[in-house]
């Protein structure tokens, strides 16, 4: 007995409609994932900003405990010393460095992300001043000398964000170390 040749078996292929349906589902899932991703990135930036403000509050507190007064900016006394804005920022960064504030701690991650979007073709690992940011994101207040002066006015912030980087108002650091948002204090503040 010779075996009978079997009929050729055809594999069923995907139709054009099935392929289009799969592509639409993949696109919908991608859009949902992208929206969720951008929401989490925004939230992560806000949390990192909050942590940096808390670190600044801790550094300022430690400076007050160590020196018994608020850091006094050069040129604020009656010595009539003229200090440029760049020199002032350098002074703040150097003054707070022993208390755990490195250069990158002065920049809000949301501001860095905005700057990176402006400079798409350049290296993405750059931070702080090397990313093209001139002024730090946080502006410390000028408080008179004295051991208890920073705590005397509980409604006066110790530091304020330079701009509204998160879309919900400029964050401010209060004397107790808490961070307050949802309130636009001023826009595009420049130091004098």
Structural class: mainly alpha
The number of distinct helices, counting runs of at least 4 residues, comes to 4
Shape: rod-shaped
How many separate domains make up the residues? Answer: 1
Unreliable stretches (pLDDT < 50, length at least 5) are 123-130, 183-192
The strand line-up of the biggest sheet is: 1-2-3-4
Can you offer a commentary on this structure?
The longest helix is centred in the N-terminal third of the chain and has 52 residues, at 16-67. The model is unreliable at 123-130 and 183-192 (pLDDT under 50). With 192 residues, the chain is mainly alpha-helical. The protein has one domain (16-180). 20% of the residues are buried. A 4-stranded antiparallel sheet has the order 1-2-3-4, with helices on one face. The protein contains 4 helices and 4 strands, in the order H-H-H-E-H-E-E-E. Strand 3 (172-173) and strand 4 (179-180) form a beta hairpin. It has helices at residues 16-67, 85-96, 109-118, 149-152; strands spanning 138-140, 159-161, 172-173, 179-180.
Task: Give the gist of this structure.
By secondary structure, this protein is mainly alpha-helical.
Secondary structure elements and pairings:
Layout lengths: L15 H52 L17 H12 L12 H10 L19 E3 L8 H4 L6 E3 L10 E2 L5 E2 L12
Antiparallel strand pairs: 1-2, 2-3, 3-4
Any descriptors?
mainly alpha; 4 strands
């Amino acid at each position: 007995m010779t075996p009978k040749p079997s009929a050729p078996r055809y594999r069923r292929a995907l139709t054009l409609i099935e392929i289009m349906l799969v592509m639409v589902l993949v696109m919908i899932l991608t859009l949902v994932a992208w929206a969720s991703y951008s929401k989490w990135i925004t939230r992560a930036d806000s949390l990192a900003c909050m942590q940096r403000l808390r670190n600044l509050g801790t550094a300022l507190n430690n400076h007050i405990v160590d020196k018994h007064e608020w850091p006094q900016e050069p040129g604020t006394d009656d010595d009539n010393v003229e200090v440029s804005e760049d020199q002032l920022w350098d002074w703040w960064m150097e003054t707070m460095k022993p208390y755990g504030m490195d250069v990158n701690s002065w920049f809000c991650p949301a501001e860095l992300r905005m700057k990176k979007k402006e400079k798409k073709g350049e290296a993405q690992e750059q931070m702080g001043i090397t990313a093209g940011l001139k002024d730090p994101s946080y502006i410390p207040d000028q408080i008179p000398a004295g051991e208890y002066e920073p705590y005397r006015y509980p409604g006066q912030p110790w530091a304020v964000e330079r701009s509204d980087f998160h879309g919900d108002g400029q964050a401010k650091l209060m004397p107790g170390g808490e961070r307050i948002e949802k309130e636009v204090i001023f826009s595009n503040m420049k130091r004098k």
